[in-house]
Amino acid sequence: MSENKANETNSFESLLKDLSEAENSNIKKESDDIINDIENEIEQAVSGDRGIKTVTENGMTFVDITAQYVKKSDSANAEDKPQEPVKTVKKVRTFNEIFSDFFSKFLPKKEDKKREKIRKIVMDVSVVTIIGCVIAFGVLFSEHLVHKSDSKNLHGLIVDTDNLNSEQYDEAWQELFTKYPSVEFPQGMNLKYAYLYAINPEIVGWIKINGTNLDVQVVQAADNEKYLKTDFYGKKSRYGCPYLDYRSDAKYLNDNNVIYGHHMSDGLMFSNLDKYKTIDGYKQSPIIQYDTIYQTYYFKIIAAFVTNSLPEDDNDYVFNYTVSDFSSDDSFMSFVEEIQKRSIFNTNVNVLPDDKLITLSTCSYEFQKARLVVVGRLCRENEEPTVDTSEATINPAPRYPQAWYDAKGMANPYKDAENWNP
Q: Beta strand 256-260 with 357-364: parallel, antiparallel or unpaired?
């Protein structure tokens, strides 16, 4: 038994020896591996292949590789590791989505509350109104500029015949015939308006009143409708063109020569006739100059009045101020009397049976379809085109249409008066 124990003891010692040798071998192997790693790290640090931290002490440089082998916690790794920026993907909106979102802010939807619907409707109406006004203003302003430009061009075509001698006058005609060989100019017409005639042979003259901006051509058509919305060049225009009544003689004056023109809100065309609603306006501009394409005439203003164009505005009566010729002297003089009865002012300009009149007619706004009419008497032979306006007076009770009195809430003193007819 002693022998067995001795054997077991030897076996155990032998096992311990083997284990010790194996452990020493492993330790040596790990040690060699660590030493090799350290040598590699130093070699790479020195060669600059890796960014290894170095420490200098007492003139000697040491490589700090401890950080390479210190195990850090997960949280430490998370803190030390630089965080990559979070990439956000922007959603691309389609055109339909953008369009729908934009109009949802303006157009009422079923799910909108009542108050929100009302707000959107009011906003929409306001926007549409503003846009409409801007467009309308733009159109009106554009037409205004075009009309002024055309008017300036027409003024530039008037020939200044006052500074031409007879030879120059004939030469100017020859030049005109050469330029417009197909135009047949009327015999005896004034060279002054010949270029305008070449553009539009329906021109019959030119009207001008000093102290106003009324300085414009006059045309005549086969009816009184054409030039209501047509300009001198034949283009559509809200300004139209002043025109002589189609029943009037363009060459030889009638008893009453009626010319119509629009009352424009921008002060153009016949709008300046408004000045004759006051006696002061009359005193500033008592003379009308009217040139036919044959001769120049001057008229002394004798009356200005407001009248109606619809029978219902004056108890089924319309004062006919557009009569061209009268059957007798008495008829003519009774017409003059009716004019003066309606006039806003009285003048010292007398009228005789063989005189001729010019009548300018435009719109007025005292009531619907009202008309403002200014009448002048032709200056007689050897009579100066001047007027002593100091004797003019205000008519205290001019005759107006019934609609005028109704608009002012007044009784009509002429309601039962006899109505004049030609």
A: parallel
Say if residues 322 and 286 touch (Cβ distance below 8 Å): no
**Cα–Cα distance list, 44 to 49, 70, 105 (Å):** 5, 20, 67
pLDDT tens-digit profile of 34-80?
A: 666 656 655 565 555 444 555 555 555 555 555 554 454 454 455 55
Contact 172, 160 (CB under 8 A): no
- The domain of 27 spans 2-73
CB 159 within 8 A of CB 151: no
Total of domains in the chain: 3
What is the value of pTM for the model shown?
Answer: 0.69
Q: 222 is written with which tokens?
A: 């086969």
**Final residue belonging to a domain, choices 41, 73, 105:** 73
Q: Where would I find the H helices in 232-379? A: 279-284, 329-342
Residue (of 100, 118, 117, 119) closest to 108 by Cα position: 117
Closest CA to 148 of 26, 266, 325: 266
